[in-house]
Amino acid sequence: MRSAPRQSRGCAVAAISVLAAAALLMVVGGVWAIVSLTVGAGAYEAAPGCEVGETEALDARVPERRTEIEQPVEGLDPTWRDGHECRWGTAEDSTEVPAAARLVLIRNGDHGGTDGEQQASDALAAASRERAPEPINDLGDEAYAWNESSQGFAWGCVGVRLSNLYTLTCYTASIDYHVSGAIPEDESLAAAEEIARATVARIEEGDY
């Protein structure tokens, strides 16, 4: 298979990165709106860092990737609440068709006697309720999958609750080097679930 010209690849990767950045802002903003309402105790004392998402599933779905965002969620009181936002995308000098994945992790601690598990469940419900979510019965304590769009580009997303930890994994990829469109929704959803399952497995095993 012939590689696309370097300039075309660079423009395509840049376009994917812009779409991913806009989508990540919406995700983090939505989570913040929920976690600012109530908080409580649960099994997790701290949110895992972005390294927990760097699995073989991510390598396979975003080949020749680079880290574009790896930082704490701003505005959280670290004495009882913390989180991380992460994004990976195809490197500009890659010979691969552009793809991107994003991950948000929010942990609620003990504060005011509120149940942290319920808080995480509410965050999951709020993120998915307007997007026709489909339940996933064998992932975490509860999980849902759905499709969403950022600037007309389709993403597959999987939200998972693990006790008082809320995670959101989303994935998209272009159909060509020119970012003329996204892969079908079912493909992006399947990829997001693969990455989410691998991430959840690492969290549950404490492998981070």
Short descriptors:
alpha+beta; 208 residues; seven-stranded antiparallel beta sheet; two-stranded parallel ribbon; disordered N terminus; single chain; 30% strand
Strand and helix map with partners:
Elements: H1 6-35, E1 40-41, H2 56-61, E2 65-72, E3 81-90, E4 99-108, E5 114-115, H3 116-128, E6 134-135, E7 142-150, E8 153-162, E9 165-173, H4 185-205
Parallel strand pairs: 1-5
Antiparallel strand pairs: 2-3, 3-4, 4-9, 6-7, 7-8, 8-9
Helix pairs in contact: 1-3
Explain what the structure shows.
- The protein is an alpha+beta fold.
- Helix content is 34%, strand content 30%.
- It has helices spanning 6-35, 56-61, 116-128, 185-205, and strands at 40-41, 65-72, 81-90, 99-108, 114-115, 134-135, 142-150, 153-162, 165-173.
- The strands form two sheets. It has a seven-stranded antiparallel beta sheet with strand order 2-3-4-9-8-7-6, sandwiched between helices.
- A hairpin with a 6-residue loop joins strand 6 (134-135) and strand 7.
- Helix 1 (6-35) crosses helix 3 (116-128).
- The chain starts with 5 loop residues before the first helix and ends with a helix.
What count of helical segments does DSSP give? 4
Q: Report the end-to-end length measured between terminal Cα atoms.
A: 37 Å
Structural class: alpha+beta
State Rg: 17 Å
Strand fraction band? 25-35%
Q: List segments where confidence is low: pLDDT < 50 over at least 5 consecutive residues.
A: 1-8, 31-40
